[in-house]
Amino acid sequence: MSQDSCTFLQAGGGLGNKPSGHGHSHGGPGGHTHELMDGPGSFTHREALRTRDDWDQRAFTVGVGGPVGSGKTALMLALCRKLRDQHSVCAVTNDIFTKEDWEFLCRNEALPEERMRAIETGGCPHAAIREDYSANMDSVRELTRRFRPEIVLLESGGDNLAANFSRELADYIIYVIDVAGGDKIPRKGGPGITQSDLLVINKTDLSEAVGADLAVMERDAARMRQGGPTLFTQ
C-alpha cells in the first residue's frame, strides 16, 4: 500500500462534525461519556493534587494503572508486602468480569482478606476510575471507615493508554507499562504515561528478547513526561 493511499481520520465526530466525547451503554443504565482528548497530555500541566481534609472519610489513595499484563498486580503485591508491617494498608482491585487480581492477592497473603475489596467493572474499566468511579470510591470509603488505613492501594483493570485515574479518586498515580509492548510505547503518550506522578517501565529483563531499546524508552519517557519521574523495573 502506498503512502498516498492512506487517509487519516480523527475519531469521535460524526459526519461533518467536530470530534466530541461519545457515550455507550452496557446493556442497561450503565452508559457513560468518555472525556475528549486532543493530545497526549502534559506532565507540567497535569491536574494538580486536590487539597482536602476529609482523610477520615477517604484515606490517602494510590492509584495503580496500566495496560493488561504490564505488572500492576505484581506491584500491588510488592507494595503490600513492603508497607504492611509499618503502615495500615488496604487494597482494592478492578477486573472486568472476574475477581482474578483480588484472588491472586488473597492467595499470596498480600494483606488480610478483610482489608481487600474486588470490583467487577464490566466492559469499560477506564470509566470505573475516571468518568464513573462511584464503585471504587464507595469501596475506598468503606475500607476507610472500617480500618482507618493510612494508605489504600487501588489497582485499575487493565486498559489502553488513554486510561487514567480521576484526581477525585486517587491522590497519587502510578502508571505501569512494560517493554514487551515495544520501545515505542512511551512516545505514544496518553494521560497515564504523561500525567501520572510516577511512570514505571517494567520487565526490563525482557528487552533483548523482544528487541526493545531501553535507551530509546528512557529518552522518549523523559521527553513525553517533561522530566517527570520514571522508574525502570523487572
Quick overview:
The chain has 234 residues and is an alpha/beta fold. It has seven helices and nine strands, in the order βββαβαβαββααβααβ.
Question: Would you write up a description of this structure?
Answer:
Keywords: Chaperone, GTP-binding, Nickel insertion, Nucleotide-binding. With 234 residues, this protein is α/β, with parallel strands linked by helices. The protein has one domain: Rossmann fold (3-Layer(aba) Sandwich). The strands form two sheets. It has a seven-stranded parallel sheet, sandwiched between helices. Strand 1 and strand 2 form a beta hairpin. The longest helix is centred in the middle third of the chain and has 14 residues.
DSSP strand content: 15-25%
Q: What order do the strands of the largest sheet run in, or round the barrel if closed?
A: 5-4-6-3-7-8-9
Overall pLDDT: 87
CATH superfamily: P-loop containing nucleotide triphosphate hydrolases
Poorly predicted segments: 7-29
Q: Which second-level CATH architecture applies?
A: 3-Layer(aba) Sandwich
The biggest beta sheet is recorded as: 7 strands, parallel
* Percent in helix: 10-25%
Number of strands: 9
Q: What's the N-to-C terminus distance?
A: 39 Å
Number of domains: 1
Structural class: alpha/beta
What is the fold named in CATH at topology level?
Answer: Rossmann fold
Overall radius of gyration: 19 Å
So what's the CATH class? Answer: Alpha Beta
Write down the overall geometry: globular
Order of helices and strands: EEEHEHEHEEHHEHHE
Q: How many helical stretches? A: 7
